[in-house]
Amino acid sequence: MSASTPGLRGGIERRGLRDHVYERILELLLSGGLEPGTRLGIDTIARDLDVSPTPVREAMVQLERTGLVTREALKGYRVAPPLAADQLAELFDARLMLETTAARMAAPATPDMLADLRSAHARHAAAGERVAAALAQGRVDPSLTAEYFAADTEFHDVVLHHARNRYLVQMSETLGAQVHRMRQTALQGVPDVEEAVAEHGGVVDAFASGGVDEPVAALRRHLDNVRERSLRFERGA
Amino acid sequence: MSASTPGLRGGIERRGLRDHVYERILELLLSGGLEPGTRLGIDTIARDLDVSPTPVREAMVQLERTGLVTREALKGYRVAPPLAADQLAELFDARLMLETTAARMAAPATPDMLADLRSAHARHAAAGERVAAALAQGRVDPSLTAEYFAADTEFHDVVLHHARNRYLVQMSETLGAQVHRMRQTALQGVPDVEEAVAEHGGVVDAFASGGVDEPVAALRRHLDNVRERSLRFERGA
DNA sequence: CGCCCGAGAATCCTATAGGATCTATCCAAG
DNA sequence: CTTGGATAGATCCTATAGGATTCTCGGGCG
Prior knowledge:
Two copies of one chain form a homodimer. The relative contact order of chain A is 0.11. The first copy, chain A, contains nine helices and three strands. In chain A, helix 6 runs antiparallel to helix 7. The N terminus of chain A is likely disordered. By secondary structure, chain A is mainly alpha-helical. The N and C termini of chain A lie far apart (62 Å). The first copy, chain A, binds a DNA duplex through helix 2 and helix 3. Chains A, B: Pfam families: FCD, GntR.
């Protein structure tokens, strides 16, 4: 009955191996520690995780869809190159389309949605406070900034999910990894915590007003400002 | 040097096995011959195509992304259930968002785009003629309707590609399979050839006008009409 | 000194084998 | 007649092996 003692398998637990491998590689990629172009050898990863190449191969196919890795037949997988300027512009446009449409669908906001939105906004603001406090001391805590990014994403996801359209959610998930990369490359220092929190507050107020056009406009304004700030960052400082 | 004679391998050529398997299964699914819920056994498919289960498995992971198949851990893959009414509504909304946004980005149309659009429109109209002619004789040719659907898709893709945004194209490809299913389930008889061709002509004229709002409005009108017609079809006849 | 090329190693890709799990059938008990 | 359980078969999942291709590096030639 018992083939091995539970909790002792080298790197990975015994259930749903493929998904576990996928998550491990995903978080490795999202951490941003790997240089673009780095080889992601099947056998190497399999050895590192103490599994066979087959589930690793499946996980890589799944990862291909996120755009974080590129595949060349018979040559293997590599970490995708960083986002070019034109890609960044297109990514912003796509996000703007998705989120403003979602806002229009979600408006007017239900009490449930408003509660979710306020809760997410509070978490985002709190995370922003911690980041700013650490920054004031000259420290840059990677786990804090990761937490801040997660709270930001969560806020935007509240609007998306309350649009009640699974295809929009699916599209957002597809873009998710790229958006994460964008944050890392274009906003390394997180210099816009205050502005972002304030603009999120504006979005909350717009939804609370009960209108339809106001939330859409507020979200559009926010995203345009984010784009503007990241462009300014791109050009230096 | 030579391990086997080229052109003799049972079902599949010798280069990029995984992709070939993917395409074969995809066209099988898009043909609509399989009942929803049908099991898609890895080993069975592997035997039928005369390959090993490994590339089949990879192809299935890739197919999962299209939404045409569903996977349950340790239970295998099945043909996805047909689109429910609410899914259909969400799909229409997502398409409307994508295509109207693409139209706004593509407008005003360049001469190149106008040429592509007119060419695609001509092919669509010609395919529509053939379908209508066959229908007048009481015949329903599956290959003709498939050709007609392809021409319709091509027309819409012209607008999408001239929006010059790879993420929009990517999203459209993600929805592509579902849209295809929608056509099959909600418009089995292709009863709206005339209307569709006429409305496409309206889209062409709107782009030719050189404006920005006109094409967006024309596309929105077209998609709203398609939705209306398929709903009417849904309710009976 | 630079360029080409060929042998070795590493890697990818596909095929096969075996353990684990699910499904279906059959039989017995209520 | 229905229901529960057990056994047999099929299927999925992971691991291992071997052929095919690509990368690397050292030697020879212009």
